[in-house]
Amino acid sequence: MEPQVTSQLATTAVVTLGGQAQVVTLALDALLAAGATFDTVLILHLDPQQPRVARALAQLRAEFASTGAQPAYRGRPLRYETRVLHLHDSPLDAIHDGREAEAVWTQARDLLSELKRAGQRLHLCIAGGPRLLALTLASAAMLHCDHHDRLWHLYTPPEFLEAAREGALLHAPPEVDVRLVPVPLAPWGAYFPALRELAQATLPPTPPPSSDAARCTAVWARLTERERAALATLAEGALPQEAAEALGITLKTLDTYKTKILAECRAAWELPEDSWLTYHFIQEKFGTWLR
Predict the structure, then answer these.
(1) Do residues 186 and 69 share a domain?
(2) Single pTM value for the model
């Protein structure tokens, strides 16, 4: 019997990616076959300049291609986003040591915190990418997820796994037993909310690298006074709604400012145009710089 995963709330599928695009598409196909509904697919991956990662991302973009205003996956409208894992301002090409593992965990923690504070239910599919990426995401899920969220592994029969390797096959025929395996999840943060605050305090802010400081200065110089006020309020740790109220503007106006700020950040940090940045990026890069 397929697991029951239907949800009526806004839901995001977070999928880890290495160099194998079929891990993402097979997981999404299995979720949809099980009756899951989700609004957004968010791909968590390493340096997009790596050839295997770049090829996998290109294949996924093609899968989400749409002639309409909104991307669609196999005829279903879905928002498609990516997030690059990085250490300071450099994309990670692997997780080599404890420092890089801690950076990945911090980003996973912040991502899940952001999505849960926005009221999202989550499907976390951890079959793709380095094993340490799956472990750090699962660890962060114990802190920020609750009983409405699901953590999944993907089982693929060995014969089909070999045939589909490197994205040779992105979808499985009905007779192939590709399926999601639910991973038991103990949501300790839901039981003991104070753990979340303690985890936020475990990694004190450090001064930004000199390259970050120069980029922060460049972004600041290209903003209007109102955009600077929005950036400063978000950098202090305010949520978007809180920032809008503090500035006496609507959330829509704040989103307009935030879109401009993040566009300038992508340019300053030389990030891909489709890289997904949020107000957490503003907090990380500008919080210490503005003090």
Answers:
(1) yes
(2) 0.69
